[in-house]
Amino acid sequence: MEGRTISERVRGTAVAGLRRKVLASAVTLGLIGVVAGVSTFSAFTATTANAGNTFAAGSVVIGDNDSNGAMFSMSALKPGDNDEGCITVTYTGTLAAGVKMYGTTGGTGLDPYINLVVTRGTIASPSFDSCAGFSADATNYIGSGAGVVYSGTLAGYADNYAAGLVDAPGAAESWTTNEVHTYRFAVSVADNDLAQGLNATQTFTWEARNS
Protein backbone atom coordinates (compact mmCIF):
# COMPACT_ATOMS: atom_id res chain seq x y z
CA MET A 1 0.00 0.00 0.00
CA GLU A 2 2.82 2.40 0.88
CA GLY A 3 4.44 1.79 -2.53
CA ARG A 4 1.42 3.14 -4.34
CA THR A 5 1.34 6.72 -5.41
CA ILE A 6 -1.23 9.15 -4.14
CA SER A 7 -2.90 9.12 -7.51
CA GLU A 8 -3.25 5.31 -7.41
CA ARG A 9 -4.63 5.42 -3.89
CA VAL A 10 -7.22 8.00 -4.90
CA ARG A 11 -8.32 5.91 -7.89
CA GLY A 12 -8.60 2.81 -5.67
CA THR A 13 -10.72 4.61 -3.14
CA ALA A 14 -12.96 5.94 -5.90
CA VAL A 15 -13.43 2.47 -7.41
CA ALA A 16 -14.24 0.96 -4.01
CA GLY A 17 -16.79 3.67 -3.38
CA LEU A 18 -18.35 3.08 -6.75
CA ARG A 19 -18.62 -0.65 -6.04
CA ARG A 20 -20.37 0.07 -2.73
CA LYS A 21 -22.85 2.36 -4.49
CA VAL A 22 -23.60 -0.26 -7.17
CA LEU A 23 -24.13 -2.96 -4.51
CA ALA A 24 -26.39 -0.64 -2.49
CA SER A 25 -28.40 0.14 -5.62
CA ALA A 26 -28.81 -3.57 -6.40
CA VAL A 27 -30.05 -4.30 -2.87
CA THR A 28 -32.48 -1.39 -3.07
CA LEU A 29 -33.86 -2.57 -6.42
CA GLY A 30 -34.20 -6.09 -5.03
CA LEU A 31 -36.21 -4.82 -2.07
CA ILE A 32 -38.41 -2.75 -4.37
CA GLY A 33 -39.04 -5.90 -6.47
CA VAL A 34 -40.06 -7.88 -3.37
CA VAL A 35 -42.42 -5.16 -2.23
CA ALA A 36 -43.88 -4.87 -5.73
CA GLY A 37 -44.39 -8.65 -5.86
CA VAL A 38 -46.19 -8.73 -2.52
CA SER A 39 -48.38 -5.82 -3.57
CA THR A 40 -49.45 -7.68 -6.78
CA PHE A 41 -51.06 -10.57 -4.82
CA SER A 42 -52.80 -8.50 -2.15
CA ALA A 43 -56.59 -7.94 -2.37
CA PHE A 44 -59.66 -7.19 -0.27
CA THR A 45 -62.12 -10.13 -0.13
CA ALA A 46 -65.68 -10.83 1.03
CA THR A 47 -68.06 -13.82 0.67
CA THR A 48 -71.70 -14.71 1.19
CA ALA A 49 -73.12 -18.26 1.27
CA ASN A 50 -76.41 -20.14 1.11
CA ALA A 51 -76.09 -23.37 3.12
CA GLY A 52 -78.37 -26.25 3.99
CA ASN A 53 -79.60 -27.12 0.49
CA THR A 54 -81.01 -30.67 0.17
CA PHE A 55 -82.32 -32.80 -2.69
CA ALA A 56 -84.52 -35.92 -2.49
CA ALA A 57 -86.14 -37.87 -5.33
CA GLY A 58 -89.81 -38.83 -5.23
CA SER A 59 -90.95 -42.41 -5.79
CA VAL A 60 -93.33 -44.46 -7.92
CA VAL A 61 -94.44 -47.60 -6.04
CA ILE A 62 -97.38 -49.87 -6.83
CA GLY A 63 -98.31 -53.24 -5.35
CA ASP A 64 -101.12 -55.72 -4.88
CA ASN A 65 -102.45 -58.20 -2.32
CA ASP A 66 -101.90 -61.45 -4.25
CA SER A 67 -98.94 -62.68 -2.13
CA ASN A 68 -97.62 -64.25 -5.36
CA GLY A 69 -100.78 -66.31 -5.81
CA ALA A 70 -102.77 -66.69 -9.05
CA MET A 71 -106.40 -65.63 -9.46
CA PHE A 72 -107.17 -68.57 -11.77
CA SER A 73 -106.15 -72.19 -11.99
CA MET A 74 -108.70 -73.80 -14.27
CA SER A 75 -108.36 -77.16 -16.01
CA ALA A 76 -110.49 -79.60 -18.05
CA LEU A 77 -112.47 -76.62 -19.32
CA LYS A 78 -115.55 -76.90 -21.50
CA PRO A 79 -117.79 -74.30 -23.18
CA GLY A 80 -119.57 -72.09 -20.66
CA ASP A 81 -117.22 -72.76 -17.75
CA ASN A 82 -116.55 -69.54 -15.86
CA ASP A 83 -114.84 -68.13 -12.80
CA GLU A 84 -113.97 -64.80 -11.23
CA GLY A 85 -111.25 -63.41 -9.00
CA CYS A 86 -110.58 -60.07 -7.35
CA ILE A 87 -107.28 -58.33 -6.70
CA THR A 88 -106.65 -55.08 -4.82
CA VAL A 89 -103.98 -52.70 -6.10
CA THR A 90 -102.41 -50.01 -3.88
CA TYR A 91 -100.24 -47.05 -4.85
CA THR A 92 -97.71 -45.91 -2.22
CA GLY A 93 -95.44 -43.68 -4.31
CA THR A 94 -94.97 -40.01 -3.46
CA LEU A 95 -95.33 -38.77 -7.05
CA ALA A 96 -98.70 -38.62 -8.80
CA ALA A 97 -98.75 -41.33 -11.49
CA GLY A 98 -100.85 -42.61 -14.34
CA VAL A 99 -101.51 -46.36 -14.39
CA LYS A 100 -101.85 -48.69 -17.38
CA MET A 101 -102.98 -52.31 -17.40
CA TYR A 102 -101.60 -55.00 -19.70
CA GLY A 103 -100.48 -58.63 -19.58
CA THR A 104 -98.20 -61.34 -20.87
CA THR A 105 -99.87 -64.31 -22.57
CA GLY A 106 -98.41 -67.76 -23.11
CA GLY A 107 -99.64 -71.27 -23.91
CA THR A 108 -100.77 -73.05 -27.07
CA GLY A 109 -103.53 -70.67 -28.20
CA LEU A 110 -106.57 -70.95 -25.92
CA ASP A 111 -106.58 -67.18 -25.24
CA PRO A 112 -108.86 -66.25 -28.22
CA TYR A 113 -111.53 -68.53 -26.72
CA ILE A 114 -111.40 -67.09 -23.20
CA ASN A 115 -113.83 -64.22 -22.67
CA LEU A 116 -112.63 -61.62 -20.15
CA VAL A 117 -114.42 -58.79 -18.36
CA VAL A 118 -112.44 -56.53 -16.00
CA THR A 119 -114.38 -54.29 -13.62
CA ARG A 120 -112.90 -51.66 -11.31
CA GLY A 121 -114.42 -51.03 -7.90
CA THR A 122 -113.88 -51.36 -4.15
CA ILE A 123 -113.97 -53.93 -1.37
CA ALA A 124 -114.13 -52.79 2.23
CA SER A 125 -112.02 -55.70 3.53
CA PRO A 126 -110.19 -57.25 0.57
CA SER A 127 -108.96 -60.83 0.77
CA PHE A 128 -107.23 -62.18 -2.33
CA ASP A 129 -108.81 -63.53 -4.55
CA SER A 130 -112.33 -63.36 -3.09
CA CYS A 131 -114.86 -60.98 -4.65
CA ALA A 132 -117.15 -61.03 -1.61
CA GLY A 133 -118.34 -57.49 -0.96
CA PHE A 134 -117.09 -56.16 -4.29
CA SER A 135 -118.79 -52.94 -5.41
CA ALA A 136 -118.24 -51.69 -8.97
CA ASP A 137 -117.40 -48.06 -9.70
CA ALA A 138 -120.49 -46.10 -10.69
CA THR A 139 -118.82 -44.74 -13.84
CA ASN A 140 -119.62 -46.49 -17.14
CA TYR A 141 -116.08 -46.14 -18.48
CA ILE A 142 -116.38 -47.88 -21.87
CA GLY A 143 -120.14 -48.27 -22.30
CA SER A 144 -120.18 -51.88 -21.07
CA GLY A 145 -121.64 -51.27 -17.62
CA ALA A 146 -120.73 -49.70 -14.32
CA GLY A 147 -117.01 -49.91 -13.56
CA VAL A 148 -116.12 -52.08 -16.58
CA VAL A 149 -112.69 -51.14 -17.96
CA TYR A 150 -112.24 -54.06 -20.38
CA SER A 151 -114.58 -56.46 -22.17
CA GLY A 152 -113.21 -58.79 -24.82
CA THR A 153 -111.06 -61.89 -25.14
CA LEU A 154 -107.90 -62.77 -23.30
CA ALA A 155 -106.12 -62.57 -26.65
CA GLY A 156 -107.33 -58.99 -27.10
CA TYR A 157 -105.99 -57.83 -23.75
CA ALA A 158 -102.97 -55.53 -24.28
CA ASP A 159 -99.56 -57.18 -24.18
CA ASN A 160 -97.33 -54.19 -23.32
CA TYR A 161 -97.28 -50.74 -21.76
CA ALA A 162 -97.43 -48.86 -25.07
CA ALA A 163 -100.72 -50.54 -25.99
CA GLY A 164 -101.86 -50.81 -22.38
CA LEU A 165 -105.33 -50.05 -21.12
CA VAL A 166 -105.43 -46.71 -19.34
CA ASP A 167 -106.91 -47.32 -15.91
CA ALA A 168 -110.33 -45.66 -15.63
CA PRO A 169 -110.50 -45.05 -19.42
CA GLY A 170 -111.46 -41.52 -20.35
CA ALA A 171 -110.94 -40.20 -16.83
CA ALA A 172 -107.21 -39.41 -17.26
CA GLU A 173 -106.79 -40.23 -13.59
CA SER A 174 -103.52 -39.76 -11.71
CA TRP A 175 -103.02 -42.01 -8.71
CA THR A 176 -101.78 -40.40 -5.50
CA THR A 177 -100.21 -41.76 -2.34
CA ASN A 178 -102.25 -44.54 -0.68
CA GLU A 179 -104.82 -44.73 -3.48
CA VAL A 180 -106.50 -48.16 -3.61
CA HIS A 181 -108.65 -49.88 -6.26
CA THR A 182 -109.99 -53.42 -6.55
CA TYR A 183 -110.42 -55.22 -9.88
CA ARG A 184 -112.78 -58.11 -10.60
CA PHE A 185 -111.65 -60.41 -13.40
CA ALA A 186 -114.43 -62.59 -14.81
CA VAL A 187 -113.59 -65.29 -17.37
CA SER A 188 -115.67 -67.74 -19.37
CA VAL A 189 -114.93 -70.30 -22.09
CA ALA A 190 -116.34 -69.69 -25.57
CA ASP A 191 -118.45 -72.36 -27.29
CA ASN A 192 -116.05 -73.14 -30.08
CA ASP A 193 -114.72 -76.57 -31.10
CA LEU A 194 -111.37 -74.99 -32.01
CA ALA A 195 -110.66 -74.49 -28.29
CA GLN A 196 -110.32 -78.23 -27.66
CA GLY A 197 -106.97 -79.35 -26.26
CA LEU A 198 -105.51 -75.84 -26.09
CA ASN A 199 -104.18 -74.00 -23.04
CA ALA A 200 -103.18 -70.50 -22.02
CA THR A 201 -101.22 -68.73 -19.31
CA GLN A 202 -101.54 -65.08 -18.34
CA THR A 203 -99.77 -62.50 -16.20
CA PHE A 204 -101.80 -59.37 -15.44
CA THR A 205 -99.71 -56.23 -14.90
CA TRP A 206 -100.37 -52.72 -13.57
CA GLU A 207 -97.63 -50.22 -14.41
CA ALA A 208 -97.43 -46.76 -12.84
CA ARG A 209 -95.46 -43.88 -14.35
CA ASN A 210 -95.26 -40.46 -12.76
CA SER A 211 -97.11 -37.78 -14.68
Please tell me how large the radius of gyration is. Answer: 44 Å
Question: What's the tally of helices?
Answer: 1
Share of residues in strands: 25-35%
- Choose one word for the global shape: elongated
Q: State the secondary-structure class.
A: alpha+beta
Q: Could you state the oligomeric state of the chains shown?
A: single chain
Order of helices and strands: HEEEEEEEEE
Give helix % range: 10-25%
How many domain modules? 2
Number of strands: 9
The end-to-end distance, rounded to whole angstroms, is 105 Å
- Give start-end ranges of low-pLDDT stretches: 22-29, 31-36
Whole-number mean pLDDT: 87
For the sheet with most strands, the description reads:
6 strands, antiparallel
In short:
The protein is built from one helix and nine strands, in the order αβββββββββ. With 211 residues, the chain is α+β, with helices and mostly antiparallel strands.
Question: How is the topology of this model organized?
Answer:
Blueprint lengths: L5 H35 L21 E3 L17 E10 L5 E11 L6 E9 L12 E2 L11 E6 L11 E2 L12 E11 L10 E11 L1
Antiparallel strand pairs: 1-2, 2-8, 3-7, 3-9, 4-5, 4-6, 4-8
Describe the structure.
The protein has 211 residues and is an alpha+beta fold. It folds into 2 domains: 1-46; 62-210, no CATH class. Helix content is 17%, strand content 31%. It has 1 helix and 9 strands, in the order H-E-E-E-E-E-E-E-E-E. The chain has one helix spanning 6-40; strands at residues 62-64, 82-91, 97-107, 114-122, 135-136, 148-153, 165-166, 179-189, 200-210. Strands 1, 2, 4, 5, 6 and 8 form a 6-stranded antiparallel sheet that branches. Strands 7-3-9 form a 3-stranded antiparallel sheet, with no helix packed on it. The longest helix is centred in the N-terminal third of the chain and has 35 residues, at 6-40. The radius of gyration is 44 Å and the shape is elongated. The protein starts with 5 loop residues before the first helix and ends with a strand. Mean pLDDT is 87; it is low at 22-29 and 31-36.
